[in-house]
Design goal:
Blueprint: E1 3-10, E2 13-19, H1 24-28, H2 35-42, H3 47-62, E3 70-72, E4 78-80, E5 85-91, E6 94-100, E7 106-111, H4 115-119, H5 135-156, H6 163-166, E8 167-169, E9 178-185, E10 188-199, E11 202-207
Antiparallel strand pairs: 1-2, 2-6, 3-4, 5-6, 7-11, 8-9, 9-10, 10-11
């Protein structure tokens, strides 16, 4: 089974990443889905999405959980019945979860693509990146910022949060592999830690 990476963030928080190499049938073997989640998988038009969904169930197994331990609220945010905090992501051939005993968490995996340049102005002030001369470095940095904001969005868990207006990510150096950021909403500001790593043209960002 291609469990790709385990990151121990601290004593109570862990990240697990899966490299999706199996077929949908292989990933389905030995996995029991709830009726609602089975309907959800059956309704997916892309096998890539189906494989991503099923690979997450194997990540749950790695932390002694099953599909029925997971419930989704009205905003689509996943929760665990045991009261622990969880966030889920999958992108192309990788999936990941972050799970914590005691703090809200968020995770995002993104493939690095030039497409990020076309949408950058929608989620971050582009002038902040004009000093970066290297094209691939700009793509990487924007992907990290997007992943961080996506992770914050997952922590917040409500649909009204706007990436440009409500979420700020502190500038960072690649070699630091971490930064900080804030969500400011309805006059309340909450700060989070952000960590990131790069592998096989993908970037994983997680926050807590």
């Amino acid at each position: 089974m291609p469990l790709y990476k385990i990151i121990t963030v601290n004593k109570t928080t862990k990240v697990l990443i899966w490299k999706i190499e199996e077929s949908f049938e292989e990933l389905s073997f030995g996995v029991d889905l709830t009726e609602s989640n089975q309907n959800r998988v059956d309704g997916m038009k892309s096998e890539l999405h189906q494989r991503g969904f099923m690979s997450v169930r194997h990540l749950l197994k790695e932390v002694d959980l099953v599909d029925s331990d997971l419930v989704y609220d009205e905003f689509g945010k996943p929760h665990l019945k045991n009261g622990k905090h969880i966030s889920i992501t999958h992108s192309f051939t990788f999936s990941g979860i972050i799970i914590s005993d005691d703090v809200p968490v968020g995770i995002d995996i993104e493939k690095q693509r030039d497409k990020i340049l076309k949408i950058a102005q929608k989620f971050t002030p582009l002038q902040e990146y004009k000093t970066i001369a290297n094209h691939s470095a700009i793509v990487s940095k924007l992907t990290i910022v997007w992943g961080a904001k996506e992770s914050f969005y997952k922590i917040f868990g409500k649909k009204k949060l706007h990436f440009l207006e409500h979420i700020y990510i502190e500038d960072f150096e690649f070699e630091d592999e971490k930064t900080t950021g804030d969500i400011t909403y309805d006059g309340v500001r909450t700060s989070y830690q952000v960590h990131f790593l790069e592998f096989e043209d993908f970037i994983c960002v997680y926050a807590y």
